What we know:
Blueprint: E1 7-18, E2 21-31, E3 34-41, H1 52-57, H2 71-86, E4 93-104, E5 110-118, E6 121-127, E7 132-135, H3 141-148, H4 151-183
Antiparallel strand pairs: 1-2, 1-4, 2-3, 4-5, 5-6, 6-7
GO cellular component, one term: external side of plasma membrane
Domain MHC class I-like antigen recognition-like: 5-178
Family: Belongs to the MHC class I family.
Amino acid sequence: TAPDGQHSLSYQFSGLYEGLTLQEFSTVGLLDKAPIELDNQGHPARVPTRSPTQEYLGAEFGAEESWTQSPKKTWDQVLGEVLKQQSNQTHGRQTLQWRYGCEVVPGGLVLSWFQFALDGADAILFDVGNGRWLAAQPWAQAPCRWWEALPAFGRSLQRYLGDACPERMESFLRRRQERARRAGTGAQGSEGQGDWAVM
């Protein structure tokens, strides 16, 4: 059984662009604020071709998370092109950020999120409960319409964030609890969604 209390699992991606050229890309997975995997690369050719969750859990997770089997394709085609062009930010240095995850609070309520930001400012948010895309900036309305036209993608997100993400989080917590038991210590912690500054 996973430890009681408030716990969270989140994944964060950050890309530094010079114009439309991806200069740096980093990913991190966080379990109660503690990194469980980290991939910082200084060249776009090294952007991972599988999601960090798949890298950590193995091939059996691929079918459940098929909507994000290629973060590089999502990042380059959707963020690198659509977001920057829609915001008229096609020159200079910009930072694009993407994060998703879930949090289970006492009582069993699951909170989840899937969102994008440009230079630390919210751009696109997915309303998990209603399956709708919300534009936090006027220029983000076009990308939202693009995703609204892919209802299967939204349903996959809802299933992952509402079911698979909490299940995987419990799996991580059980592993951490077992390691702590063997080491003779008790590791506990909690985290909220935080802010873009932590990426």
